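Continuing from the previous page...

OK, I double-checked the sequence for Palmitoyltransferase against my notes and this is the correct one:
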Amino acid sequence: MYIYNTVNRMGKQNGSCWWFVKAVKWIPVIFILTIVLWSYYAYVVQLCFYTVDNYVQKAFYLFFYHILFLLFLWSYWQTVFTDLIEIPYKFKIPDAEMEKFHQAETEEAQRQILERFAQGLPVTNRTVKGVIRFCEKCQLIKPDRAHHCSVCSTCVLKMDHHCPWVNNCVGFHNYKFFMLFLAYALLYCIFITATSLQYLIRFWKGELDGMGRFHLLFLFFVALMFAVSLTSLFFYHCYLVLHNRSTLAFTITCAIYHELFVEAFTPPMFRTGKDKDGFSLGKYNNFQEVFGDNPKLWFLPIFTSLGNGVTYPVRAQHQGTSNTYDSMGSTRNSFGDGVNFPERLCNEDTHTLLGHTTQQWGDETELDSPPLYGSQSGIV
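Thanks. Re-ran it with the corrected sequence; updated structure tokens here:
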């Protein structure tokens, strides 16, 4: 990861080597695909075709192996190549306002500019100092749970982390795919480990001949190694899903990260203070927020997550007296472009997550729909 970040900084400092940086970022993905393709050869050809004698057992192995193999590759593909969703234009701060912001002489003046622009925008989160979350690089008000990715050079909706193994940010646009990728990768490794164990034992007893036995030996230990590594990562993200948290919102106490990442690695900040469970609606509803309300599609890498990635229902104590996302004041108009921004009720989102598919909005202009997947060039 250190080398990955170093190469990324080199690309930013020297624009002439951007092509080299882009190529280097794909090395982890190529490595994963190489391991997977080799494992296919080792398992299908060396184990099933050349080693397993029982035809029923051979058919059983091949059938379930290919199911896991296809689901694993499908979910991995979706995680890697699902583009980021662009943050709606209404969060973008106009150049005139940015000029006023930079010319402001005090932090209080800058704070007032941000609050005036953010009036009516559906944001409830604050920085650790209690001010509007603002990205100076992207020049926009950060939607709730959005963070700026230094690798992708853009703000990412519901960002969890940037994963070099998929060369993509993990966030609202592909979190379900990432979870399925971890699940099927773990099952894939466990299946290979379990079904090749008896042949590893035969190898040690000297009952297997030929070069294929070395493929089986390495296949077993590689699968076992990845299974051990994936187990902790998968169950960690299961915990995050069930509690409606993210990696960036998980508190990091290591002193080396405190100054640099104090905003990103602390629990969500609301007007009422920090609350690590501020977005939690109960384990089942939290699960549905990521995987959707159709059980038939839970196990397929098809996008079914609830919501638009911009607004999220919050717990009652953070809803305020108006019970809305409008936490900036009574004005409901977006200051930046003169277009009315919708006011969305928290309890309406809660009803959606509880199983009602119809989402109600106010009488004002609807929030810009997020672009279709594949229409943005979010992959760096």
